[in-house]
Amino acid sequence: MTGLPFLCVAAALLLVVARGAIPPPDEAARMARFVLHNCDWGALATLSAQEGLRGQPFANIFSLSDGPPGPLGGSGVPYLYLTDMEISVQDLEINSNASLTVSLAQTPYCKKHKYDPQNPLCAHIIFCGSIVKVNDSEAGLAKKALFSRHPEMESWPKDHNWFFAKFNITNIWVLDYFGGLKIVTPEEYYSVKP
């Protein structure tokens, strides 16, 4: 029984090592890329178009991926697999603007360090922008990115008319240390590797 906790800690450390060391706080663009690439889901906030909630913020969880796992797999583009049947997607059909929050709280990193998800050291990023369907030339990249991390998606019901989309980033905020949010431009973000 004493070996089980050791194995859990060892597995968590291997996961962090396999995914690369966390960037230092003075590299906000790299931190943003690191957080997105090491996370499998995020909270997408839309402006609701639903009766009784119209115009109100509405957040929902979505699986995402910027590429296959591993240090060289991330493009920085958050891809999603969506259906018009989903309530948030119905909101996006009226207004494609959204924000996306992704946090290292979903990885072993914050638990290992005993960081509460709200602790700035448990880094999270907030993207603002819009959701757009990917064109045919980008669909293969989106499919590889998503299905490599979320293989269950391939078996989701075909009659739901799933489609690949991406988060078109216009603004980025990073909270990874004390002292407030850091602003990163999309140009800075895409010019670095996680």
Automatic annotation (TrEMBL):
Record bears the keyword Secreted: yes
Stored Gene3D superfamilies: Electron Transport, Fmn-binding Protein, Chain A
Subcellular location(s) per record: Secreted
Signal sequence, renumbered to the chain: 1-20
GO cellular component, one term: endomembrane system
Keyword annotations of the record: Glycoprotein, Secreted, Signal
Domain CREG-like beta-barrel, first and last residues per copy: 23-191
InterPro entries, per the entry: CREG, CREG_beta-barrel, Split_barrel_FMN-bd
Keyword Acetylation: no
Stated family: Belongs to the CREG family.
The protein, known as: CREG1 protein
Organism: Jacana jacana (Wattled jacana)
